[in-house]
Amino acid sequence: MKTVCILLLLSLSLQAQEWTSLYNGENLDGWEHVGPGNFIIEDGILKSQGGMGLLWFTGQKFTNVKLRVVYKGADENNAGVFIRIPEKPTEAWMPVHKGYEVQIDDREDEWHKTGVLYSLTKAKASPGIPKEWNTMEITLQGDRTIVHVNGILVTDFKEGDPVPKKTLEYEPDRGPRPDVGYIGIQNHGIKDVIEFKEVSYKNIEDK
């Protein structure tokens, strides 16, 4: 009996460590788009078109997970990964002000660069690789948000940490975000095309 229990615990532990894909590479089942522009699929790759809009995953809210997003094009274009969206978005600006945008854009300054919480945190590093596939991992653990790009730490933020004052109208409102929320990916504008080939997650334990 003891052996069976141990095997069951090991099985559950392995399941918790497996990545679950949210994008199937064929269609947008489970996703919904709000706002201008859209996403198209070419050879299994998601491409942002026009905007500013948001493609969000409708299936569940997320907490205590690692999100993995594999993307290309941040050296020339702009997009973002949205997290901690408190309710189902009906337009593109609510997630800006009520959730967080993890920026995808290697051209901007340290407060608006790939891997930061847009205009709220300062990049600890700039590890993006131009014209190649890059891997972003976002850890949502309670009220803490950690972002690695290509295995290098860019952001480690906890609710209540100091942030700079809002200076531009389009920057997000300051204030706390929920521990649990929807996620999405942004299509930013007519000239911005970011490619995505993976959006997946795996559960982690709360601490």
Could you characterize the architecture of this molecule?
By secondary structure, the protein is mainly beta. It has one domain (21-203): Jelly Rolls, CATH 2.60.120.560. Helices cover 11% and strands 37% of the residues. It contains 2 helices and 13 strands. It has helices at 2-17, 93-98, and strands at residues 20-21, 31-34, 38-42, 45-49, 53-57, 65-72, 79-85, 100-104, 134-141, 144-149, 152-158, 182-187, 195-203. The strands form 2 sheets. Strands 1, 3, 4, 6, 9, 10, 11 and 13 form an 8-stranded antiparallel beta sheet that branches. Strand 3 (38-42) and strand 4 (45-49) form a beta hairpin. The chain is globular. Mean pLDDT is 93; it is low at 3-16.
N-to-C SSE string, H for helix and E for strand? HEEEEEEEHEEEEEE
CATH architecture: Sandwich
Rounded Rg = 17 Å
- Measured as a percent range, the helix fraction is 10-25%
Describe the main β-sheet briefly. Answer: 8 strands, antiparallel
Give the percentage of residues in beta strands. 35-45%
* Mean pLDDT across every amino acid position: 93
**So what's the overall shape?**
globular
Residue stretches low in confidence (pLDDT < 50, at least 5 long) are 3-16
The CATH topology turns out to be: Jelly Rolls
Number of strands: 13
Q: How many helices in DSSP terms? A: 2
Structural class: mainly beta
Please, what is the CATH homologous superfamily?
Answer: Exo-inulinase, domain 1
Query: What is the CATH C-level name?
Result: Mainly Beta
Whole-number count of domains: 1
Distance between the termini: 30 Å
